[in-house]
Amino acid sequence: QEKFMPAAEQAMQSIMASVATDEVQMDCIREAMRRMCTILGSDFARFLPVILPGLLSNLSVESIVSRSNEADIGNEGDDELTVPTDDGLMKVKTSQINEALALVDLLKAFIKETG
After folding, report:
1. Which of 63, 50, 61 is closest to 14 using CA atoms?
2. For a Cys-Cys bond, which of 3, 8, 44, 96 suits 64, CB 3.0-4.6 Å?
3. Helices 5-17, 23-40: crossing angle, 10 deg rounding
4. Is the Cβ–Cβ distance between 51 and 106 less than 8 Å?
5. In the chain, at which residue ranges do the beta strands (DSSP E only) sit?
């Protein structure tokens, strides 16, 4: 852990400065953070104040679910479903659900490793 901390600090600075433009890049960044967390254990907690606001901002229900109307039925994108509810129709973005699940899994790893 002690040997890895300077490299982890540099890696985290690079990760935080990078802007992921696609799902593959986000997956790589999440996996790098997960590995660093596993290696550093409770010492990784020092990075959480910087990491968590960005991760948590991506967990909004509004980015996953929105109201829909009859005209939207059949016009969904590849990653959208229109679901009938008691309050009308809701459009659900399945790719956003997968992203949210990946973020929750990463948060669970942070909790487990940092205590």
Report:
1. 50
2. 96
3. 160
4. no
5. 65-68, 80-85, 88-93
